Amino acid sequence: MKIRQMFDNKNTVFSLEVFPPKKTSNIDTIYTTLDQLSELKPDFISVTYGAGGSGGIGTGSLTAKIAGDIKSKYHIEPMAHLTSIYTTKPSAHAILTELQELGVENILALRGDRMPEREPETDFVYASDLTKYIADFGGFDICGACYPEGHPQSASLIEDTIALRHKVDAGASHLVSQLFFDNQDFYDFRDRMHLAGINVPVEAGIMPVLNKKNIERMVTMCGASLPKKFAKMLARYENNPEALFDAGIAYAVDQIIDLISNGVDGIHLYAMNNPKAVYKIYERIETILHASNRA
Fold first, then answer.
1. Is 17 marked active-site?
2. Helix (H, G, I), strand (E, B) or coil at 43
3. Three-state DSSP class for 170?
4. What is the pLDDT of residues 229-256, one digit of tens each?
């Protein structure tokens, strides 16, 4: 099933993101995680493309395998990530062919993160270039990434919105946002989208705070700002892992409830391969999700 259709059938789509295990880890760890997450019956599960979203040798096939298993074993729609920065046209063709053979119909097209020790490929300079290639290849529903506070490398929010319009025009039928911690940033972004004539569904990407180190790394990578309320929470509980975990869950729940109340198209929960955190959040929002989709 194409994910774009889900937005026509539900007021609030709910999805999860997982990542493949590191090369040094047992691949069975991801299936232990999926065994638990699948019980929540999310609308779809996305699978990232290698460490840090950079891709690399062999990671495409691992992403494809896990995505294929999500569909065939767990009967949940998968969305496979594909990054442009280290992908050539021949390798993209091979990955897309493999995904089709596995019955995977949905792709999140991204630029990906640059690795200092490796020069980028030049076939797809921007995510929009990869998006168009996938659209021309045919058979896939394409999701694009968006940044509520603007892409870190965009000169302005106007420039970022123009780039997003190019991505949608290239074939992205819906969007999923990078993490953010102030919902007003998301609402302002949604207003900019609509003013620019970008009217595709957009899921809000929510990442629960599990520990201070991880969240600071992600904020550095994606450029998200920390509201005073959030920063005070980190400062107060940074030396108490259990308290920080519980406070982070509560913060994410508050964000999600507010977003659903304000008509968000979907919630994309960055699961961090941590079923415990996902379950704690889901049990707090389950009835609200159901109420939204009955409205």
1. yes
2. coil
3. helix
4. 998 998 899 899 999 999 999 999 999 9
